[in-house]
Amino acid sequence: MVEYKEQERPLASHSHPITIPNDTSMLPSTDDVEKTRLRRRCVKCCGCTSAVIVIAAIILLVLFSTVFKAKDPKINLNYVTIRGLQGVNPLNLVPNTNLTIIADVSVKNPNIASFKFKNATTDIYYENVLIGEAHIPEGNAKAKKTFEMKINLDFMLQKIVGVPRLVGDLTTGSLLLTTTTSIRGRVEIIDIIRKTVGVKMDCSSTVIIADQTVQNHKCTKYVKV
Q1: Residue 119: closest CA among 103, 133, 139, 104
Q2: Are 119 and 65 in contact (CB under 8 A)?
Q3: Strands, DSSP E only, in the chain?
Q4: Rounded distance, CA 213 to CA 208, Å?
Q5: What are phi and psi of 51, to 5 degrees?
Q6: How far apart are CA 115 and CA 96, in angstroms?
Q7: Mean pLDDT per segment of 10 residues, for the chain of length 225 residues?
Q8: Which class for 160: exposed (0-12), middle (13-18), buried (19 or more C-beta within 10 A)?
């Protein structure tokens, strides 16, 4: 007889139960989520605001150091002429002869705002003798413009008739004149930048009597803030 043996089946391994947490208290609440979102938005806003402030500060710094920087005005003596010398006889000087000095002075303003000046004077010398003095009225040189002034001065020949080299200069037909021009004013840029500047210019020129041209024109300028 054939005997059948019953196979032994292995016992099932001990199983571990898997538990799925179902505790809703572990999840963040709606208020916490909203606070986190608000906090992130505040951080972004603060970062953007700080970046804008830094960029604006850099732009203003560049502008104030370049475009808005107050620059010193420039003055120039364009020419000097003496009317009445053509008919003067060097060998027969008439002391009460009236002469007229015409000086053309320009003020160049390189700023983006007007340069308002006052207390401007021009003195003209011949051999260190003052032969003409003019007080220039207050004026206003507009931004990036040049303001020109024509000054007329009257003087009598007797002021310089005692100068030893006068006869020789009249004979050769030329006079060496020196001039001093002083201007003081103020530049105001957008009511924030205010700069008071004093400019002085000393010039020497040789005036040709025949055609009233100027030669050997040299100037030295001084700026006092």
Answers
A1: 139
A2: no
A3: 74-83, 98-108, 115-126, 129-136, 139-141, 146-156, 174-189, 193-208, 214-224
A4: 5
A5: -65, -40
A6: 41
A7: 52 54 57 74 80 76 62 82 79 78 87 82 89 83 87 80 87 90 83 79 88 85 75
A8: buried
